[in-house]
Design brief:
- The chain is an alpha/beta fold.
- The protein has 5 helices and 7 strands; from the N terminus they run βββαβαβαααββ.
- A 5-stranded mixed β-sheet has the order 3-2-1-4-5. Strands 6-7 form a two-stranded antiparallel ribbon.
- Helix 1 crosses helix 2 and helix 3 crosses helix 5.
- The longest helix is centred in the middle third of the chain and has 20 residues.
C-alpha cells in the first residue's frame, strides 16, 4: 500500500509518500509544495491543488492522510486559513478518487511514540528510525507528513479502518477511530 501524508499550510505544505507491505515501511519520496507568497488566497489555493495533483499523478498513492486542523482560541484566523489549505488538498485527492483519512497531531504522536504529548523531536526521531533513514528529513513539514503516513500504516495494521467503497458511482470514505 502506498500512503501519502500531508502537512497542510498556505506557506509550505509538506508531503511524504511511503510504501507499506504489512510489515515493512519504505520511503518513496518527500517534498514540499510552496505556493507563491505574493499571490492572493485563491491563487495560493490553486497552487496547492495543482501541486498536489502533480504529486498524485506521479506517485499514485492508494490513500492520503491529512492532519486535522488544530486551533488555539487566540488565533482563529490561522485555523480558518489552514482549513482553506486543507480543503484544496482534500479536493485534489477527491478529484482523483483517492481516499482521505484524518489524524489529529495527538493521534500521530501516540502512533509513533506511544505518547500523545510527545515532542516534535521525539516524533522526528521515530520517523528516522521507522524509515531507516540516515538523517532527519528537511524541512520539518516533510517529517510531519511522513509521520502522518507512518501513523496510518501502523493504525491500519493494528486496527480495522473501513476502506473507501463505491456506492452509486460515488466514493464514500470509511470512519476511523484514532
Amino acid at each position: 500500500m502506498r500512503i501519502l501524508g500531508l502537512d497542510p499550510s498556505l506557506h509550505t505544505t509538506g508531503y511524504g509518500v511511503i510504501e507499506f507491505n504489512g510489515t515493512h515501511l519504505r520511503l518513496i519520496e518527500g517534498g514540499v509544495i510552496v505556493p507563491s507568497r505574493r499571490a492572493g488566497l485563491s491563487q495560493r489555493l490553486g497552487d496547492l491543488q495543482r501541486g498536489l495533483d502533480e504529486v498524485l499523478a506521479q506517485l499514485r498513492p492508494d490513500v492520503v492522510v491529512v492532519e486535522e486542523i488544530f486551533s488555539r482560541t487566540a488565533y482563529p484566523r490561522t485555523a480558518i486559513l489552514m482549513a482553506h489549505a486543507r480543503g484544496a488538498l482534500v479536493c485534489a485527492a477527491a478529484v482523483r478518487d483517492v481516499p482521505v483519512f484524518d489524524y489529529s497531531a495527538t493521534a500521530v504522536k501516540r502512533a509513533l511514540v506511544g505518547n500523545g504529548l510527545a515532542s516534535k523531536e521525539q516524533v522526528a526521531s521515530m520517523v528516522v528510525q521507522a524509515l531507516r533513514l540516515r538523517k532527519r528529513p528537511s524541512p520539518a513539514d516533510v517529517t510531519d507528513a511522513l509521520a502522518l503516513a507512518i501513523a496510518h500504516a501502523r493504525r491500519r495494521n493494528g486496527r480495522t479502518i473501513l476502506a473507501a467503497t463505491r456506492r452509486n458511482g460515488r466514493i464514500t470514505h470509511g470512519e476511523q477511530t484514532v
